[in-house]
Hints:
The complex is a heterodimer.
Chain A: H1 2-24, E1 26-33, H2 40-59, E2 67-74, H3 79-91, E3 97-99, H4 104-117, E4 121-123, E5 138-140, H5 145-158, E6 163-169, H6 172-188, E7 191-198, H7 206-215, E8 219-223, H8 228-239, E9 245-247, H9 254-260, H10 262-265, E10 269-273, H11 288-302, H12 308-327, H13 331-339, E11 344-345, E12 350-351, E13 366-372, E14 375-378
Parallel strand pairs in A: 1-2, 1-3, 3-4, 4-5, 6-7, 6-8, 8-9
Antiparallel strand pairs in A: 10-13, 11-12, 13-14
Helix pairs in contact in A: 2-12, 3-4, 5-6, 8-9, 12-13
Chain B: H1 3-34, H2 41-57, H3 63-86, H4 94-116, E1 132-134, E2 137-139, H5 141-163, H6 165-175, H7 177-182, H8 187-213, H9 219-233, H10 240-260, H11 265-279
Amino acid sequence: MKRVSLLLGGICLSLVCATASFAAGTIKIGALFAVTGPASFLGEPEKKTLELLVKEANEKGGINGQKLEAVIYDTGGDATKAVQLATKLIKDDKVSVIIGPSTTGESMAVIPVVEKWKIPMISCAAGIKITDPVKQWVFKTPANDHVAAEKILNYMAGKKQKSIALLTVTDGFGASGREQIKVLARQKGFSIVADEVYGPKDTDMTAQLTKIRGIKPDAIICWGTNPGPAVITKNVKQLGISTPLYMSHGVASKKYIELAGADSAEGVMLPAGKLAIYDALPKGDVQQKLLKSYDKTYKKVYGTEASTFGGYAYDAFLLATSAIKKSGSTPEQIRAGIEQTSKLVSISGVFTMSPKDHNGLDLSAFEMVKVVKGDWALLK
Amino acid sequence: MQFDQILQYTLSGLSTGAIYALIGIGFSIIYNATGIINFAQGEFVMLGGLLTMSCLTVLKLPLWAAIPCAIAVSTLVGILFERLAIRPLRQPTPINLVIITIGGSILLRGLAMLVWGKDTHSVPPFSGDAPIAIGGATILPQHLWILAITLIIIFINKIYFYHTISGKAMRACSYNRRAAGLVGIDVKRMVLFSFIISSAMGAVAGIIVAPLTMTAYDVGVMLGLKGFCAAIIGGMSSGLSTVIGGLILGVLESLGAGLISSGYKDAIAFIILLLILFFRPQGLFGKADSERV
């Protein structure tokens, strides 16, 4: 009997605690980031950004008088782990919204979980599959790869460049870019004259480039993340290839210019998210102020430049918190709030969501830039 | 197919091949002295590159001082690795040793990730990056450095293993550890020596390729595997045949990527590895082992 009463007492106590914490009004934001493992270049800045933002928001007194609490788990880039941790976030931590995962593979794996438990998820991965077709509870912040590809092709059309040599990396990012450029090129009347690939860890791409040099295309489009594109840039210089070289938005950071060397990277063109180039933006750009303050704060706290990837977490946080401000903090209210987002100025672009579009970005999320003397210059 | 394309493929292949060869020789030196395959070899390549980068940027040393510094530190890591992980082993069966080297490589990679972060780092080339044209094909000055340093190292190796007492003692250990011990050779010391030499050599390889390939905490994995391939093709010899093995591998990869498809570049290396292991486990140039009873 004593035991039972003790147990009952325990239950009562925990209930009281639970209500107490609820009354104090904490909103729990769950996050799944690949902080370690192969995709750590995404997860690490995302985690740091989210921690920074939550701290900032709480110092300002929280949102609608409620404090925020971030529960961040490291998935190691592993889809199975991401699913387990998502379930944990929902069942044990009882979060109201999930930010992340960092990669497309993990996001796809977590989608059935959030759909089942009806918790809004804002993925920080770029894969088009995540929000196309639209899933009720799933949003994502990075612009689709095809938006960046379209930006390049539109620019090329203006320069009357018709034949393209593709050089893509053999991972998810490269494969998806390769598919989408091919589809877009067919629609827009470009011809793909070479379709070469390289491994993410390859150290010399002169063989592929020699082949491309023999074909004499109007332009080379390389789709990959560092260090591959930096090696390719050096190889292009070594082989004396003068064909215009386009890179993807995956290398839109100063790191790329540093790795390739300002000399070799001179003249390389790419679509960049505005964070990388906020200094070069024209006066009066709506995002400029926010971009600058994000970069400055990040640099002050962590000592390194803010990256586009951290920006994805920033967008997700902003989408979630402005939804909470507007509609309330239950999962259903947050979901509805995010879907009604209109002209929200953030890091990756200006978001306008709708029941048909759970990404909310268009071509204006990118600017075409060119490397000039080791820095970005805006292309018209 | 034009001639200058083939020439470019071959030149590119030779320069990558020289890197594989240098790493491959590191594998075979330890194999010959101890009978184990040191899968941590690739990590010394990583250490060489990253330590040079640190010496240049953090300690602000000039390049000529940064390189010996990086080699010395990598060698020290090699010594520690042998002392702390290989020597204390109670039952040094080959399988135990191989597993330990794999564990060691994961440990080294993890530590490097903590020290240098996950970013890729660049190291400046030794003597500029103006391309040199050779009959329609181009190479960089750094490629010449790689070829020259590989040749010098092979030459020094040859002298060491065939013309010095400790080199001969190391060879004796590889033929028969027990007999070597009986004639008064300190086998454990020879094992330590082999780790010193191969970690220094791995570091050299890492340093001379870093300006071309850049360096990061995880470059050792792929380069290590390719070096292992080169050593297998060369029959685990610590001399010319591993070098030729590396060069063959590099050229075939490059020609394969250029003439067949770049998607199969790595597959080519590993298919060659499997074929050699199936049909000529003694290497392309080796004679079959005959066990004397």
